[in-house]
Q: What sequence folds into this?
């Protein structure tokens, strides 16, 4: 019963995460029924990202934003894994699962940090300021 409850919480978290990801990626589809929000989205379409029209800077800004959100998601998963480890109630299977979640989220954070370093390196290499 405890495992089913944790699975239910995990599914609810994933649904919320997917909704947030869709809301960030495609706000006009998620909030399509709100006419006031539609007018705001249309007004914001002319705004340039980062105040520049340079494709390199725009791409770097977008990639940094995406990597920041992924980092936040990895930290949330790490906290959930820690919570699952504490609440595991002594079950070896739940402890093993929680430890795997923690390990994979730490690996994910390392990969995200390396990706951010790579984006920074490529961005600086393009401007000649390495």
A:
């Amino acid at each position: 019963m405890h495992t089913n409850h944790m699975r239910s919480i995990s599914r609810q978290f994933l649904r919320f995460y997917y909704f947030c990801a869709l809301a960030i990626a495609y706000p006009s589809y998620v909030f399509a029924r709100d006419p006031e929000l539609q007018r705001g989205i249309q007004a914001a379409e002319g705004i340039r990202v980062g105040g520049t029209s340079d494709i390199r800077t725009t791409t770097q800004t977008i990639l940094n934003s995406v990597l920041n959100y992924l980092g936040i998601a990895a930290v949330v998963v790490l906290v959930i894994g820690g919570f699952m480890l504490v609440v595991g109630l002594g079950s070896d299977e739940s402890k093993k699962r929680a430890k795997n979640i923690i390990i994979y989220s730490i690996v994910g954070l390392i990969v995200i940090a390396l990706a951010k370093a790579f984006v920074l390196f490529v961005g600086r290499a393009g401007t000649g300021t390495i």
